[in-house]
Amino acid sequence: MKAIYMKATYDIITEPNPILRIPSVKTVTSEEIEEIKNSGMAQKMVKTLFSVQYSVGLAAPQIGITMRFFLFLHNKLPVFCFNPEIISTNDFKTEYIESCLSCSGSHAVDRNSDIKVVYTNLFKKQIVEDLEPMSSVIFQHELDHLNGILITDYKKEGN
Ligand SMILES: [Zn+2]
Predict the structure, then answer these.
(1) How far apart are CA 117 and CA 110, in angstroms?
(2) Average pLDDT over residues 122-127
(3) 57 in a domain, yes or no?
């Protein structure tokens, strides 16, 4: 019998793989959240996130799963957001320089620094919260992934 080797982390899909451009339309169900938690997939995603230095977020499409959820570092802790939505934002946007595990280089992106969001966490609890600027920016970046949008899309005039 051959030894079965299971990789501890997921391979991250990079541009120009078309999977990154597919909007994840499927709402994640309670049963699927349970499955993601109990199958070891959630843990493997956390390991994948922490395997890359300075990484702060990983969306399902980046590991080839077109479902509406992502993992992000929120107040330094890995938090899963299922079916995330932005409820409200502050009035103006600020420019941030972002990088992405799926794209090369850094890109300027205009983001709201204060957003109010709703999502279901890994324990199937619905969370409504106001995010501080760091988490706001990461949340918007990861939410973009669920809609097939990458930071390379935010090309500014003069760039
Ligand atoms: Zn990204």
Answers:
(1) 18
(2) 98
(3) yes
Output the furthest CA–CA distance in the chain (Å, rounded). Answer: 62
State the CATH number of the domain containing residue 101.
3.90.45.10
C-alpha dist (Å) from residue 57 to 73, 76, 129: 6, 11, 18
- Determine, yes or no, domain membership for 2: no
Give 46: exposed, middle or buried? Use CB within 10 Å, 0-12, 13-18, 19+. middle
pLDDT above 80 for 115: yes
Is 7 among the domain residues?
no
Spacing, Cα 66 to ligand 1 middle (Å) = 14
Q: How far is the CA of 30 from the centre of ligand 1 (A)?
A: 25
Residue 157 scores a pLDDT above 80 = no
Give the range of the structural domain holding residue 58, as residue numbers without chain letter: 18-153
Residue 99 scores a pLDDT above 60: yes
Confidence at residue 159, expressed as pLDDT on a 0 to 100 scale: 46
Clarify whether 98 is annotated catalytic. Answer: no
